[in-house]
Amino acid sequence: MQWKILCHLIQRAWAIPLTLLSQSTGPLSPLMKKLGWPTLFCHTLSIAPDGTITGYKLRQQDSKRHAVISLKSLYYKTIAVGDSYNDITMLKEADAGILHNPPENVKDEFPEFPLSYSFDELKAILKPMLANG
Length: 133
Description:
The chain is an alpha/beta fold. The chain has a single domain (2-131), classed as 3-Layer(aba) Sandwich (Rossmann fold), CATH 3.40.50.1000. Helices cover 41% and strands 21% of the residues. The chain contains 6 helices and 7 strands; from the N terminus they run H-E-H-E-E-E-H-E-H-E-H-E-H. Strand 6 (96-100), helix 5 and strand 7 (115-116) form a beta-alpha-beta unit. It is globular and about 45 Å long. It starts with a helix and ends with a helix.
């Protein structure tokens, strides 16, 4: 429920749809429903009949960064939230990047990003960003 409130806060502040970037859709299905089915860009997983993940198909190398570049080329403001190495180029490309609950090695290697470890901390970081539009 807290993520849904956060998404509504973002959508209300900029009057644009929320867009999520992820490695795959499978694990996100419950979250997507709770968020009201925002736009999702992701890769495709190959799944065996027994449900085992057997591989994946990338839509594009460094796809999260390219998605941010594309949104910015359409004059959208971008805020990226990520937690690991595969998010860093996206965080750097966005107008604002936030590390949310990253492992220690990622936090230590990228001190330039604000950190949040809870929904309340993330919301506190986002509020002034959204107020400035």
